Amino acid sequence: MRNFLRTETKKVVDRSLSSKTRINRLIAGWRTDPKFLNRNGRPKALEVVGAKSEFSTLARRYGRDVTARTLLDQLLRQRLALERRGKVTLVSRQATVQQNQNTSFADLRHLLQVLDEFDWQFGRRTYSSVAVSLTASENKSAQLIRRTALKRLTTTLRALSALPHRGVSPENGASASRHRVLVKVTITAETKEKAK
Predict the structure, then answer these.
(1) Into how many domains does the chain fold?
(2) Is 138 domain-assigned?
(3) pLDDT tens across 173-186, in order?
């Protein structure tokens, strides 16, 4: 099971890294196709109203099977474009998309590492989850919260590992089944980028 999950996750990551996303293709087309450039060779503001609008043409040409509205919503949500007075303008560099992808891949790699720590020989698993979300107005405060949480949780985990292990060896007639409690703590610091 472990090898299957690892293999499938690796396929997803590799596939995503090797192929451009629809948004990347759309932006690349918008930046290079003469039909969507102004006189200075820069991406022009495109009309978005109507099925035969300039943006719909761009979406059909570079967005493949996704509707123009869906692509537009995605561009706006990722702050790669700005819609004003029936026109959409490209406002951000493609590097923003790459940064979002890199962050997602880092998350996938972390999840894969967590899966690697499970002993798949154990049959049934039960999970418990406790979460808390704290907000800070500045990076310095967020890092202080992260360090404090890490220090206190490390102390707690060390205290847990120092507990005496109560177990009966199989040679004393007890069942040969094993039980294990894996306590894994993840502290995630997130930064919400400001709109440009």
Answers:
(1) 1
(2) no
(3) 555 567 777 787 88
